[in-house]
Design a protein that fits this description.
Helix content: 25-40%
Structural class: mainly alpha
Radius of gyration: 19 Å
Strand order of the largest sheet: 1-2-3
Number of helices: 5
């Protein structure tokens, strides 16, 4: 039976860590964060065949600066010739292994906030920031719990609305989306950020 909503694409979710023995150890100049490529009509129209395209518009690159590729499909297939998912951004690319570490935005936020702390002055490290940084230990479980339903009902909720197969499914997705937005609005009416006075991973 066909899905009533658009299915989220498979995610690549490996992780950069401070451990030098890990699959993806933190090293200077090894990794590259690929954001949105450009905003021309060609780039914005992603038909699932090539993904985002490099076209030089709005000051963007006319080709991939490392390999000279013209679209993200080529980069994904460079990382994994058998890859069958969508060619999305952002993602983190490992120059040494010539592969994609992760294309999951929440994982990328977390790894970039903590994996390279050993290269920073102690005063700039995540654990020493006000409120304990983006993921303070006492709030970790609560932040992850909130992130889970925000991802399901808001992040993917917009896709569910746009790709619903029937009016019934659209109404169901829209109700869930606006219920989630109302919950967030109520929470932010009482505090500066989702978990108090300091920004956390949930706000990002």
């Amino acid at each position: 039976m066909a899905s009533k909503w658009f299915n989220p694409p498979p995610q690549l979710r490996s992780f950069i860590t401070p451990d030098p023995a890990s699959e993806f150890p933190a090293e200077p100049d090894r990794y590259r964060l690929q954001p949105v490529v450009g905003f021309s009509a060609v780039s914005v129209h992603r038909d699932g065949v090539k993904g985002w395209c490099y076209d030089g518009s709005s000051g963007s690159d006319s080709s991939d600066p490392v390999y000279g590729f013209k679209n993200l499909r080529q980069l994904y297939e460079k990382a994994d010739p058998e890859y069958k998912g969508t060619y999305s951004v952002p993602f983190v690319f490992d120059r040494k292994k010539e592969t994609i570490v992760s294309n999951d935005s929440s994982s990328i936020v977390r790894m970039l906030s903590i994996a390279f702390d050993s290269f920073l002055d102690p005063t700039l490290r995540e654990e020493n920031k006000a409120g304990g940084g983006l993921l303070p230990a006492p709030l970790k479980a609560k932040i992850e719990g909130l992130n889970e339903w925000v991802n399901e009902d808001v992040t993917w909720g917009t896709y569910k609305c746009g790709f619903s197969q029937t009016q019934e499914h659209y109404d169901e997705a829209m109700t869930a989306l606006y219920t989630a937005l109302d919950k967030l609005e109520k929470r932010l009416a009482e505090t500066k950020h989702l978990f108090g006075d300091h920004i956390t991973e949930a706000d990002v």
